[in-house]
Amino acid sequence: QKEVEQNSGPLSVPEGAIASLNCTYSDRGSQSFFWYRQYSGKSPELIMFIYSNGDKEDGRFTAQLNKASQYVSLLIRDSQPSDSATYLCAVNGNSGGYQKVTFGTGTKLQVIP
Amino acid sequence: GAGVSQSPSNKVTEKGKDVELRCDPISGHTALYWYRQSLGQGLEFLIYFQGNSAPDKSGLPSDRFSAERTGGSVSTLTIQRTQQEDSAVYLCATGWGMNTEAFFGQGTRLTVV
C-alpha cells in the first residue's frame, strides 16, 4: 500500500461545478495534511492545510479530514478554468522511520468552460 | 530572498559529465527535501534532511546520486556520470520542521544530451 494515494485522473468537471479530490494515507499517526496545486511547468504551491478532523474552508476551497477513515479531501466550489491543474495531497507522518512530508502522485483536474 | 532559491534554473550537460544542483532554503528552515519530476509524472522523493539528524537517503535512485547540506543551510545535489534518464526537473522544498508544510523552489531543469 502506498503511503499517500490519489486517483491520477484526469477529473473533468464543467465550469461552475464542485470538484471533489480525494486522498487516503496509511500512517494512522499522521498529524498534518496539505493540499498543493501545481500548474503545468510550475512548482507546487501550498493552497490548504488541515490538522483537525472536520472541515476547513478558505474561499472556494474546503479541506475535509477524517482521521478514523484515514482520508483527506479537497472540494473546490464554483470551479473555474483557472483551477485546471494537478492537485497534490501531502501528509506528514512516519515514513521509513523518518517523520516527514510524503506526497501523493497528484490528481489532474480539468475544468471545462 | 524570501523564498527557496535553486540554481541553475536550467542545465544542459553531456552524458557522462557530473552536475551539481544548489538549493538555498528559506532562512531558519530546518527541513529540506529534494524531489525529481519527469515530464507529466508525479514527484519522486530523493532525499530528506532534518536539522542535524542523519538524512533519509531512501529515495536516491543509484549511487551516482548524492546530496549534502552544509551548516544546516545550503544543500547541493550531485549527479555523477549523468545519463539521459536523469533528465528531469529537480525540485527542492524546505520547511520549519517535521510537522509543517514545505515550500518549493522554482526547480532546476536538467537535460542530459
Present the secondary structure layout.
The complex is a heterodimer of chains A (113) and B (113).
Chain A: E1 4-6, E2 11-14, E3 19-25, E4 32-38, E5 45-50, E6 54-58, E7 61-66, E8 71-76, E9 85-95, E10 98-103, E11 107-112
Parallel strand pairs in A: 2-11
Antiparallel strand pairs in A: 1-3, 3-8, 4-5, 4-9, 6-7, 7-8, 9-10, 9-11
Chain B: E1 5-7, E2 10-13, E3 19-24, E4 31-37, E5 44-50, E6 65-69, E7 75-79, E8 88-95, E9 103-104, E10 108-112
Parallel strand pairs in B: 2-10
Antiparallel strand pairs in B: 1-3, 3-7, 4-5, 4-8, 6-7, 8-9, 8-10
Structural account:
The complex is a heterodimer of chains A (113) and B (113). Chain A is mainly beta and 113 residues long. Helices cover 0% and strands 59% of the residues of chain A. Chain A contains no helices and 11 strands. Chain A has strands at 4-6, 11-14, 19-25, 32-38, 45-50, 54-58, 61-66, 71-76, 85-95, 98-103, 107-112. In chain A, strands 2, 4, 5, 9, 10 and 11 form a 6-stranded mixed beta sheet that branches. A 5-stranded antiparallel beta sheet of chain A has the order 1-3-8-7-6, with no helix packed on it. In chain A, strand 4 and strand 5 (45-50) form a beta hairpin. The relative contact order of chain A is 0.35. With 113 residues, chain B is mainly beta. Helix content of chain B is 0%, strand content 46%. Chain B has no helices and 10 strands. In chain B, the strands form 2 sheets. In chain B, strands 2, 4, 5, 8, 9 and 10 form a 6-stranded mixed beta sheet that branches. In chain B, strand 6 (65-69) and strand 7 (75-79) form a beta hairpin. Chain B starts with a strand and ends with a strand. The mean pLDDT of chain B is 94. Classes of the chains: A mainly beta (113), B mainly beta (113). Chain A binds chain B through residues 31-32, 34, 43-46, 49, 88, 90, 92, 95-106, and chain B through 31, 33, 35, 41-43, 45, 48, 50, 56, 58, 91, 93, 95, 98-107.
